[in-house]
TrEMBL record:
Belongs to the class-I aminoacyl-tRNA synthetase family. GO terms for biological process: tyrosyl-tRNA aminoacylation. It catalyses: tRNA(Tyr) + L-tyrosine + ATP = L-tyrosyl-tRNA(Tyr) + AMP + diphosphate + H(+). Residues 319-375 form the Tyrosine--tRNA ligase SYY-like C-terminal domain. Its EC number is 6.1.1.1. This is Tyrosine--tRNA ligase. It holds the Pfam family SYY_C-terminal. The keyword Protein biosynthesis applies. InterPro entries: aa-tRNA-synth_Ic, Rossmann-like_a/b/a_fold, S4_RNA-bd_sf, SYY-like_C, Tyr-tRNA-ligase, Tyr-tRNA-ligase_bac-type.
Amino acid sequence: MTTTDELLTRGVAEVIIESELRQRLASGAPLRLKQGFDPTKPDMHIGHAVGLRKLRKFQELGHQVVLIVGDWTAQIGDPSGRDETRTRLTAEEVRANAETYMEQFFRVIDRTRTEVRWQSEWFGKFGLEQALDLAGRFTLAQMLAHDTFRKRYEAGTALTILELMYPMLQGYDSVAMQADVEFGGTDQKFNILAGRELMAQLGMVPQQVLLLPLIPGTDGRKMSKTFLNTVDMRMPPNEMFGRVMSMADDVLPLYFEVLSDMPVEEVAEMRQSLVAGSINPRDLKMRLAHEVVAQFHTPADGDAAESAFVRQFVQRELPEDIPEHALSAPTPLLDLMVATKLAPSKAEARRLIDGGGVRIAGERVHGYDALLQPGAGVVVQVGRRKFVRVV
C-alpha cells in the first residue's frame, strides 16, 4: 500500500497546499481528483501517463478520479509556453481526436472508478451573461502575471483575448466538477491556480494542487506533440522500445521514478551509480524500455520487443519484418530512397549518404550513383531503424 508520504513526494514537483491536502487525506473522506486533457492530436504520449499513474495510486486508496476532455479549450489551444497564437481546431477535429483518448486513458487508470466528463456539458450551455461574468472575475494584471502572456505582451507579439480566456475556462472546469484536487504538469501551475482563485470567489473550498514533473522527450526537450519527440501510448511495441532506448542516460532516474514502481530507495541508488559510473546505462534502458512496453501493451510484447532490439542493435542482425519494394527496372538509389520514404527528398538522401548513414547489403554507400536491380533481394538501410528490401 502506498503511504501518504510517498503519494505526495514520489514523482511530484509541488503540492499546494501540502498541509491542507494531508489533512483532507487523513480525514478518510473520498476526494474528487481532477485532471484535464486537451485532445489537440489523436495520440497521447507517456508524458501524459505520469499524471494518470499518480491518479491510479489515489484510486487504489478509494478516491474518485474525474477526467476532463477539453473539447472547448482544445479549440483555443493552451497558450502556456508558446510564443505565437495556435491555429484553431474545429469542433469536429477535436471530437475525432478525443474519441481515441478514451481507450488510452484506461490503459493506465481503472475505468470502473473513473468519471469522464466533456467540457461541452457545461460550456455548451454558457450564455453571453455567464461568459462576461467569468471574464469580469479576473484582471489584466492577473493574466499578465502568466509568464507566457507577459513575454508576448512586452514583445508586442499578437496576444488574443481568447487566449487570455484559456486559464479562466480551465478554472471553471474545477467549479463545474467541484474538484477537491487538480493534477497537472508544472507548466499548468498558472491555469490550475486560476481554478483555486475562481472557487474562492464563488464561496467554494479552493481545490488543492498536485503538480507533476514534465519528462524529457527523445531530443532532450520536454516531451510534446509540438516537438515530435514523443513516445506515444499506441506506438507499436518495437518502435516504443527503440524510442526509450534512444533517451539520454541522465533521464533514467526520473523515468523510473514516474513511470515504474521501482522502490524509491532503488531509484536513489541508481542515481548515485550513474553519477559514479559504476553501472551500464544501457542495461537500465533495456529494463526501462521493457517496463514501458509491458505497461502500455503486454509483458509478452515487452519480451518480444527486447529480443528484436538485441538482434538488430546488439547482435547486428536484420529485423524480421522488413518492408519490401518491387522494382521493374534498374533504379537509382536516390530515387528508391525517396519512393520508399527512406528520405523525404533527394537532397536529404545525399546528406544521409554523405554522413555515412546509408548501407546496401550491409556495405556503407559512398556515392550517389548506385543502381538497384529488380529482384536483387538486397536490403537498403538508412540509419539504425529504416530498412527496405528490393524485390
